[in-house]
Amino acid sequence: MDLTSITAQWAPRMLSVLRIVSALIFMAHGTQKILGFPPSAMNPPLLSLSGIAGLLELVGGALLVVGLFSRPVAFILSGQMAFAYFIAHAPKSFFPALNGGDAAILFCFVFLYIAFAGPGPWSLDAQRGRRTY
C-alpha cells in the first residue's frame, strides 16, 4: 500500500479527529465562562456578550464533539469566532500574535472548513444515515 492510498483512506477519519479535538478545546472556553472550570477571573453574566459566547462554546462545542448537526453548528461557531476576533482582538493590534486572536482565527477557519467538508464518518450525523463527509 502506498502513501497516497493510505492518506486517502484515512482522510475522512482524520476530519473526524480534527472536529473532535477542535471542539473539545473550544468547549473548554465555554466551561470556563459558564461553569467556572477551569477556574478563571472571567465570570460573565449569562446575558452578556461573553455569557452568550460561553453558551455557544459550551453547547456548540458539545454538539461538534459528538458530530450532531455539524454543518450548521460549525457555520455558526465560525461566525462567532470571526465576530469575536473583530470585536475583542483586532482593536488591540493589527497583528494576531500581539492581539491574542490566534485561536479565534484558527477556530474560525477550522469550523468553516467543517461546515463545508462535513463532520467525517465518526459522527452522529453519519450514524443517522446522512453521508455528510
UniProtKB/TrEMBL annotation:
It comes from the Bacteria. Pfam families: DoxX. Coiled coil: none annotated. The keyword Cell membrane applies. Keywords: Cell membrane, Membrane, Transmembrane, Transmembrane helix. It is a multi-pass membrane protein. The chain crosses the membrane at residues 46-66, 73-91, 103-124. InterPro entries: DoxX (IPR032808), DoxX-like_oxidoreductase (IPR051907). The keyword Cytoplasm does not apply. It is found in: Cell membrane. Belongs to the DoxX family. This is DoxX family protein.
